[in-house]
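Moderator note: this is an archived Q&A kept for reference. The question asked for a predicted structure of one protein chain; the sequence and the answer are reproduced below.
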Amino acid sequence: MTSTATALRCAPAEETYHDVAKLLYQTVHAFRRRYGGAWDDLLSDAHLGFCRAYRGYRPEKARFSTWVRNTVWFAMLQGRCDRLKAAGREAPLPPRLEAPAPRAALAELSADAALVVRLALEGARPAEATPAGVRAALADALADMGWCGQRVLEAVAEIREALG
């Protein structure tokens, strides 16, 4: 195969890479500020993440830049976990994921607020398990039960207050 044929075959991915290279470096920098790590390791993970994002992009799911950023971030998290496990250390969860919900506060909720929490945590998951998809499924379930918007807002406000 000639070098021209090789260049033509690689051109779309390479061109796309150059379009999002700044985004990759910004994502690596943000990840490194939050979790630390060697720049070269993170950049390598970011490049692998870009390859996955390029191959698996689905336009109906997100803009390409959003898809790339999320895929690259996940690839760096996975790489970090793999490196920590190889070193015999456990990868800690980010702070907002490791803190359990205060059970005492949730136990004191009204019946309406408790139902909203139970539906949100245990209810049927939509096909799109994104926050927006879960919210939509929860809203549909409550509407099917005859709840009005004001009742939902009051229950959510109570839950927010209980969680602080």
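Archived answer notes: Confidence is low (pLDDT under 50) at residues 1-8.
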